[in-house]
Known about the structure:
The structure is a homodimer of 354-residue chains.
Chain A: H1 5-21, H2 27-31, H3 40-52, E1 56-57, E2 66-67, H4 69-79, H5 87-98, H6 104-119, E3 123-129, E4 135-142, E5 147-154, E6 159-165, H7 172-185, H8 196-206, H9 213-225, E7 231-235, H10 249-260, H11 266-272, E8 278-280, E9 293-303, E10 306-315, H12 320-339, E11 349-350
Antiparallel strand pairs in A: 1-2, 3-7, 3-10, 4-5, 5-6, 8-9, 9-10
Helix pairs in contact in A: 1-3, 1-4, 5-12
Chain A binds a DNA duplex (30 and 30 nucleotides) through helix 3.
Amino acid sequence: MELTERKKKVLRGVVDLYIRTAEPVGSKAIAELPDMNFSSATIRNEMADLTAMGYLEQPHTSAGRIPSAAGYRLYVDELMADYRLSMDETRSINSAIEEKMARVDKMVEKVAKLVSQATNLPAISAASRAGGATVKRFDLILAGQGSFILVLLLSTDEVVNKLIKLPLNITETDLKLLAAVCNATLTGLTPDDITPELLDKIMTSAGTSASLVPVIVEFTNDTLRHHGSTNMVVTGQQRLLGLPEYRDVDKAMTVMTSLDEDSLSGLPAVMMNENGTKVLVGPENVAQELKDSSVVMTKFDIGDGLQGMIGVVGPTRMDYAKVTARLSYFAESLSKLFAKPEQAKLPEATEEKQ
Amino acid sequence: MELTERKKKVLRGVVDLYIRTAEPVGSKAIAELPDMNFSSATIRNEMADLTAMGYLEQPHTSAGRIPSAAGYRLYVDELMADYRLSMDETRSINSAIEEKMARVDKMVEKVAKLVSQATNLPAISAASRAGGATVKRFDLILAGQGSFILVLLLSTDEVVNKLIKLPLNITETDLKLLAAVCNATLTGLTPDDITPELLDKIMTSAGTSASLVPVIVEFTNDTLRHHGSTNMVVTGQQRLLGLPEYRDVDKAMTVMTSLDEDSLSGLPAVMMNENGTKVLVGPENVAQELKDSSVVMTKFDIGDGLQGMIGVVGPTRMDYAKVTARLSYFAESLSKLFAKPEQAKLPEATEEKQ
DNA sequence: TTTTAGCACTCAACGTCCCTGAGTGCTAAG
DNA sequence: CTTAGCACTCAGGGACGTTGAGTGCTAAAA
């Protein structure tokens, strides 16, 4: 059977209405739509066809139709109208974003809250490193009797440090030597490059302070390995409860539990390989618990080799047009915010803190 | 009217049963309790008295009794039996805790999840600094053309750093001088001590690199000011939905919203001034939204001048004995964990990362 | 051939009514 | 002071009928 223009129009009408009302949509309601110059009987035939084609479903014989997952998919891909953000919306998003987002982890939390608020849905926000880093430079600073600070300057221009206390006496000369050795041998290496043999070699060249080498190497390894780790926040889960499809507490709990757990931890990774805004409708979700829910997500640039990701989870009946519009706008604004050199008074500074 | 021993026994019975069943408790059920050698009629009289005294309530005339807030209060303070953790419980808590808790913020998140799991209730976890910190030592490391790393060693032995890039040429000598000036003038100061006049004085003594001073001072101020800030996580909210009192979706949403928002941000502060485990029953909660819920919380030591706090939120009908027992054990174990010098291979090291 | 009016049919949702049973308070006897 | 007995209350749940939105099909109209 062919998907005529009229069928598409009917389908769009059904999805639009169902998104608004959460009630099965009948032929009469569609017939009464403006621009729909046919009687309910005609619509009825079209709807029967659409049902046969798998785009609509019927909860029971004497009820209206609701979109199937395939119906939503078609809607998202082809039918939905562009949603244009109102001035009010852009303004409120902007003013929310403009607040200072100091530390990355606080930023992730903040963004999640904002997105959740803007969409009235649970939101996910995450930040992760683009790729593996290496150490560009080692520094060792004496910090009093038997303690020194290890400072790593990474290839991403981040700085990481650790205060190390030892039951040993360390001299400035020891540290200078050690730093030189490390800089000579360990810079530019990934954790995998650091073999036990290499470690041995370094320890012999370190001479008297050989015992410090393992501590330094261990911390370096640790830092590089955990470097790509994702920072993720989920918030606003309770917003689901306001929606009719989650009045069924068990259903709500299932979805919320899957949000709370680490089952979502795959999402940011999925997103990183995609471009633009991605919509996962119902069963397209990998997680079984989300088979009746949809996910909309998009990514943005943070700078400093960081990638951000925001997304929301909601009923398959969510207002895709509005949600994708808001999410995209959010992502755009955030990218811009981080791209523009912070209007520091004098210098341009990259922050890396605690 | 006097609160006789028998009345207390009846009250304890009612609370215990109600905690187990979430159903109003009738006189017959109490009469059938072991150790309760009276007929239901007698119990009925006692229950009528307890109702008059405000310890019990009656949902409607032909229903059993449920404890009032005052009833719970009395129960928590005097009546409840000590709950002894089983070997299984202590073992599972221990093994959960033993996992490495690297960074403080990750630790807070982890602990929240564990507590929520152990109690099957939403949990709050927070960490915050005990008091203000000062800078013990400044270091400036040249990191290539026009950029250097500022390293602050704080009085708490934490290390904080920032990579600063400037459109200027900086020499090693400049930095040495600057570091000396900062160490001479800024160490041991709180943000409030740093007046504009002092800033002026430092800038003049800094000579050619005067323009760097404001950047350094700003970052220092920022660091010290944000030092005491609390790090808080709430998790497991969906667990409420499993409890009969929150089958009413609206009620659940109210409570969960108040958990999600920053209305809880006062709690950690409240706790810091208390000792031991604190129970807030229903209306004793400041937040109006929690008037039908209870909060149990306790604190623990993290070391490095950090204080931790864990708590759970649940229905007033929660199993106070079990929850307080588990929470206290958690707190104890965590304190121990952080107190014991990490069994590092060679040295004893304090970690401060990223 | 396509559209539409008409009609019989279906069925969830809702309200009404009644019954059941748990639990109560009171009274009078033990 | 305790308890057996009894009349009373009332939420919860099942049975039943009504309502109305929506359907599919057919036959006439365009």
